[in-house]
Amino acid sequence: MVEIAEEIGCPDCGAPLKIKPGEAIITCEYCGSSVNLAVGKKYFLKHSIIPASYDNQAIMGEIDSWMKKGFLKPSDLARRSKVLDAELRFLPFFIVNVMATSKYEGVLTRTGQNLTKKGEFSKTYYWKIMGRRGSHFPTRSYEVPAAGKADFNITLLSKDGKFLNSELDEREAGEITTQEIKEHHKFLLSSEVDHITSIDTQVDIKNTEFLHAPVWFIKYEYGGKTYELIMDGATGDEIKAEIPPMKKKGMFGKIFGT
């Protein structure tokens, strides 16, 4: 990325923008306009937001409910656990609408014979790219709650939420999308052939949307160990969870483990 002066004003309201190293798209905390730092100009990509439905008090209730449900959790999880930290973050995503077409040739060997196969298949995707580098967020399995989506407005941000700018721009998000879809098509093709001789995947990007979605990151303690729970700030659903192992009972009914 090109060097950018530390002081840069919002192109709409003139307010100073807070710039952190590595960020590519900055959203003004006063008026909600976004700036592409690579060119220092207003960012015109459609920007949407999913408002948070759960504040700190509400998410605590959802955490308690989550701990009490499920067959694979310790029966005393809700009673003996302690929430150490709960932070709401508005995460940046690129939703890339693409049509991908693959032409391939390969060999099927699982039938005991070497059968040459070739063909073509096409798929349409709304591919999600997390706008933060080095994130361990489960982007592929995360279902964006699009029902509550609205045009971006700074007033829709929760007071107790942490807003994260994107460290990627639209161009880089498109490049990552193209590479990931090419790998995905190789995976899909593995159900058709055992050895891929050649594959040519063309990825046609139709449009891209920039979106911020609310996610709660929770750390809790149970049995002297710390676990992570990620919950959707719009629906309260579990996104990813670390669950303590269930306690084991000995032959006389004694419970072992913490």
Description:
The protein is mainly β and 258 residues long. It folds into two domains: 1-43, no CATH class; 45-96 and 117-163 and 207-256, no CATH class. The chain is 14% helix and 40% strand. The protein contains three helices and 13 strands, in the order E-E-E-E-H-H-E-E-E-E-H-E-E-E-E-E. Strand 2 (34-36) and strand 3 form a beta hairpin. The N and C termini lie far apart (50 Å).
How are the SSEs placed, and which strands pair?
Layout: E1 25-27, E2 34-36, E3 41-42, E4 47-49, H1 56-68, H2 77-80, E5 82-108, E6 115-130, E7 150-151, E8 161-163, H3 170-189, E9 195-222, E10 225-232, E11 238-241, E12 248-249, E13 255-256
Parallel strand pairs: 4-9, 5-8
Antiparallel strand pairs: 1-2, 2-3, 4-7, 5-6, 5-9, 9-10, 10-11, 12-13
Radius of gyration: 23 Å
The averaged pLDDT comes out at 90
Oligomeric state of the chains present here: single chain
Class based on secondary structure composition and strand pairing: mainly beta
Strand content: 35-45%
Count of domain modules: 2
Please trace the helix and strand order, writing H or E for each element: EEEEHHEEEEHEEEEE
Low-confidence stretches: 1-5
- Summarize the main sheet: 8 strands, mixed
Shape: flat
Helix content range of the residues, please?
Answer: 10-25%
